[in-house]
Amino acid sequence: MAWDPALFVELVLRAFSYWWIIIPAVLIGTVVGAVPGFSSANTIIILLPLTLAMDPEVSLIFMMALYSASQLGNGIPAILINIPGTGGAAATTLDGYPMSKKGEAQHALILCFVASVVGGLIGTALVIAFLPFFAKVGYVLHSVEMVVIMLFGIVLIATVAAQDMLKGLFAGFLGLMIGAIGTDQIYSTPRATFGFIELYDGVPLVPALIGLFAISEAFVMIENNSILSKDGVQKARYSPWSETWFYVRDSFRYSWLMVWTSIIGLVIGIVPGAGASIAAFVAYQQARAFSKTPSLFGTGVPEGVIAPEAANNGVTSGTLVPLLAIGVPGGATAAIMMVVLQYQGITLGPRIFTERPEMAYGVFISMFVAYLFMIVLVVPLARYMARVTLVPTYFLAPMIIGFTTVGAFAPRGFQFDMVLALVFGILGFLARKTGYHVTAILIGIILGPLFEQYLMRSLRLSQGDPMVLFSSNVANVLWVALVASILLPILRERRQQRKILLDDANE
Question: Where are the beta strands (DSSP E) in 315-415?
């Protein structure tokens, strides 16, 4: 379809006219995203009778706004209490929570919100401008290319392990082993399921996430009266409005970082089945690799919050590209949207761009408008959300365990998942007390099965020839980028050490 400015203006004005459905959807989505174990997919399923009864355009705008806001909301518990709402927000805990412990929760939340909004706006704007081009990306990134993309995320294990390489790598390999539980990719033979049929589909992500982060963190909290340091308490109590707006302006010092990490999220989101977890870890790894101060990552630096959050929200528009272009949903939420649209009689695929261009482009324009509403609705709330860190841990810990255990039950409805969350909670607590990084374990659990899936698919297509991994020009470019992202921080660190030695010698 030729680009029509008049249609674009009409769709923008029409999207703003639906403010009455966008505002409640944004507020619901933010709350849902902040509750560990719940997601936009769960919520849309619960509200399915309502969305089916709505006008197609209204239901689509409602789902778009809720989905976008839930991605933003996932970072709230990750920053405040070290509990990511979903796997996509797990990378945010690496620097977001250390900022909260220093009394900079408001700063971290504003960085999260601004990066989420900017990342979402950039991703959506790029899709609107280049939708026909991005529709072809899914055809370019095959299993071979995805193997290399997975390695970008898995390399983050070594980054996390920088302080204690042996413990970090052991935690990562433990995560990869746990991720291998289930049935194998070729013959569907059960592996390490111990007779539990609930594990045949693999270790469910939500109970593992909740156990490793939420329950183990609650156990650690019990040992202290507050999650804040002594200096952090004073900072957290003093947070005037002027500070809020200063942090908003300060966030835009990292505009370029927001731009290129949101593009990473967009491209990964276009690949069906990839999702926010991969995008967030890849963006964090790349942000650290090309940072001038990589050693500060993990101690509470703004870049460590911005990169994964911008990528997370770049994913939102990306997952809808294959849904509209070829009728294949890019994720769970997109799959539910497909059900609603098909029920409404809307045919998905290439013809939608010629037969109903207002619907095809209206999806992304409504998402763009929803992100604009989030600036006004969510960013000012950071000042009040940050107060959660002042709550004494003897109130906070029991609430976390209670809410998150229910969250572990919600996705699949198995009591087994609640027990599994407690098991992972004990594992996470022991890991924290003995100096093992739970994030390294989680990276293995999330990315391990996906890496195996794409690797086995590539090898089966090549009849077992490993050189297939270097058979694609795109894959070879990605291999070069992967090696560069590993070597660059090492070379930069050596150059800095050499400079220090020269300066000392000159003195």
Answer: none
Domain tally, the chain: 1
CA distances from 90 to 48, 138, 442 (A): 28, 25, 8
3-state secondary structure of 182: strand
Distance CA 230, CA 318 (A): 43
In the numeric block, which tokens belong to residue 35? 């509750």
Separation of alpha carbons 235 and 377, rounded Å: 24
Tell me whether residue 359 is in a domain.
Answer: yes
Per-residue tokens: 418: 């609640």
233 to 108, 227, 362: CA distances (angstroms): 15, 9, 46
Let me know the angle formed at the C-alpha of 42 by 41 and 44, rounded to the nearest 5 degrees. Answer: 65
Map residue 191 onto helix, strand or coil: strand
SS3 sequence of 14-29:
HHHHCHHHHHHHHHHH
Q: Is residue 10 part of a domain?
A: no
* Residue 43 located in a structural domain: yes
Instruction: Centre a 10 Å sphere on the Cβ of residue 377 and count the other Cβ atoms it contains.
Output: 16
**In a structure prediction context, what are the per-residue pLDDT tens digits for the chain, which is 507 residues long?**
445 677 788 888 889 999 999 999 999 999 888 887 677 777 887 787 788 888 888 888 899 899 999 989 989 999 998 888 777 888 899 999 999 988 899 999 999 999 999 999 999 999 888 877 776 666 677 788 888 888 888 887 777 766 677 788 888 889 989 998 988 877 778 888 888 889 988 899 889 988 998 899 899 888 887 788 767 777 777 777 778 889 999 999 999 999 999 999 998 888 776 678 888 988 998 898 888 888 888 889 999 999 999 999 999 988 888 888 777 776 778 878 888 877 777 777 777 777 777 787 888 899 999 999 999 999 888 888 888 888 888 888 888 888 888 888 888 889 999 999 999 999 999 998 988 888 889 888 888 888 888 888 888 888 888 888 988 888 898 899 888 887 877 777 788 778 777 777 766
Dist. CA 95–CA 296, nearest whole Å: 9
User: Would you say residue 482 lies in a domain?
Assistant: yes
3-state secondary structure of 40: helix
Where in the sequence is the domain holding 394, given as residue range(s)? 22-506
